[in-house]
Amino acid sequence: MKFAYALALLGSVAQAHYTIPRVSANGVSRSDWQSVRRTANFQSNGPVEDVTSQAMTCYELQSGSQGATVLDVTAGGTLTFGIAPNIYHPGPVNVYMARAPTGNVLNFDGKGNVWFKVYSDAPTITSNGLNWPSDGQSTVSITVPRCIANGEYLVRFEHIGLHSASARNGAQLYISCAQVRVSGGSGTANPSLMAFPGAYSPTDPGLLINIYWPVPTSYTSPGGRPLVC
């Protein structure tokens, strides 16, 4: 009986984790890892918990594109991420972009102060708790900012599970990086840039927080506010 219970527990833990293996745009859907770099958790589904680790960049299984192709997107258009199986834990979605300095995203490692935030959701807060719009979702869509420059980018999708965030390094980060080629941008944006790792601290109020009791009256996601065109 103990063995059966242990197997059931392991199964429930595995189902509680997830990956972000798919991205689509302009009516073009891609299969798992076709335009997203394969992550180190592609089999375990496990999260990043140390926000100072190198895994914070793109959580890659191996460095480089790993055979992933580049998806064409239009500035002002919609980019949709697919989650496998779905976002199980409560917490925010943040999306960042980094333009490949050489123009070729396939060899871009995403290191240094190259990232800017383009999307962040916020919870609805009631006396019963915090509820994010991504709770339980298997897809999340964002709008590509119209004011960014044309070129090839890494797009870093991040969901932060806050169910265990009352302890240091208790927040669970689910991360992946898509490869896109942007056209139609105005190039007028001048966003503040940050690095992963480096942008987050384990003690950031959006990472070290008890979301259950007492119920917070506000929530501030790490990484600051997204770019507004």
UniProtKB/TrEMBL annotation:
Gene Ontology cellular component terms for the protein in this record: extracellular region
Record-linked Gene3D superfamilies: 2.70.50.70
Catalytic activity: [(1->4)-beta-D-glucosyl]n+m + reduced acceptor + O2 = 4-dehydro-beta-D-glucosyl-[(1->4)-beta-D-glucosyl]n-1 + [(1->4)-beta-D-glucosyl]m + acceptor + H2O
Cofactor requirement: Cu(2+)
Enzyme class of the recorded protein, top EC level: oxidoreductase
Coiled-coil region list: none
Keywords: Carbohydrate metabolism, Cellulose degradation, Copper, Disulfide bond, Hydrolase, Metal-binding, Monooxygenase, Oxidoreductase, Polysaccharide degradation, Secreted, Signal
A Pfam family recorded for this sequence: AA9
Keyword Transcription regulation found: no
The keyword Iron belongs to this UniProt entry's keyword annotation: no
EC nos: 1.14.99.56
GO terms of biological process kind: cellulose catabolic process
GO molecular function: hydrolase activity; metal ion binding; monooxygenase activity
Sequence similarity: Belongs to the polysaccharide monooxygenase AA9 family.
UniProt-recorded name of the protein: lytic cellulose monooxygenase (C4-dehydrogenating)
